[in-house]
């Protein structure tokens, strides 16, 4: 008689197994359906976005002509130490104190500039000390000075402007020169 009760226990453990497998199948089907619905929504959104951007580009061509800023690649700036130089003497002694920041193409260029920093600082010091106060006291004079610094820095890095290049064209990894402070006394 001991064998008879053993059979119902085995039968009891076999019965829930099909219920668990049915439950797993239902869960898998629901998850697959949710993924299909999500994929369909993403596809519809992309199609709607594509249609809207195509319509707005045809309707307003002036908006396309404006330069856009790529926020995924923020600009990289390298701040140089403060420059203090005596300016070329006009009537009395004047000195210039300037804080200069270089805008570079990317972060790797910014890191590599440290190897060239002694030559870059030397060239900028020579350029600044060769100026008269009257040359750098106007906005046009400062803009011209910034372009001359840009040319000197790119030249120190081995990027000389071509013969027919327009003045102010950034030819090299340094794209701009900014003055954070500019004091003449």
From TrEMBL:
Transmembrane domains' residue ranges: 23-48
UniProtKB keywords: Cell inner membrane, Cell membrane, Cell projection, Chemotaxis, Cilium, Flagellar rotation, Flagellum, Membrane, Transmembrane, Transmembrane helix
Membrane topology classification: Single-pass membrane protein
Family matches, as Pfam families: FliL (PF03748)
Coiled coil: none
Top-level lineage group: Bacteria
Annotated InterPro entries: FliL
Localization per record: Cell inner membrane; Cell membrane
Known function: Controls the rotational direction of flagella during chemotaxis.
PANTHER family membership: FLAGELLAR PROTEIN FLIL
Similarity remark: Belongs to the FliL family.
Name of the protein this chain belongs to: Flagellar protein FliL
Native source organism of the sequence: Thauera sedimentorum
């Amino acid at each position: 008689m001991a064998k008879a009760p053993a059979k119902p226990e085995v039968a009891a453990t076999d019965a829930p197994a099909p219920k668990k497998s049915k439950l797993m199948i239902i869960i898998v089907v629901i998850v697959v359906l949710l993924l299909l619905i999500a994929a369909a929504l993403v596809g519809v959104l992309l199609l709607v976005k594509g249609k809207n951007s195509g319509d707005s580009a045809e309707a307003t061509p002036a908006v396309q002509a404006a330069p856009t800023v790529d926020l995924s690649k923020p600009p990289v700036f390298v701040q140089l130490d403060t420059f203090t130089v005596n300016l070329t003497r006009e009537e009395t002694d004047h000195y210039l104190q300037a804080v200069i920041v270089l805008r570079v193409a990317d972060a790797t260029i910014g890191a590599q500039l440290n190897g060239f920093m002694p030559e870059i600082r030397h060239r900028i010091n020579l350029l600044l000390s060769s100026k008269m106060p009257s040359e750098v006291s106007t906005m046009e004079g400062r803009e011209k000075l910034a372009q001359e610094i840009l040319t000197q820095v790119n030249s120190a890095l081995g990027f000389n402007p071509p013969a027919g290049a327009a003045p102010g064209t950034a030819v090299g990894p340094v794209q701009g020169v900014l003055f954070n402070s500019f004091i003449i006394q």
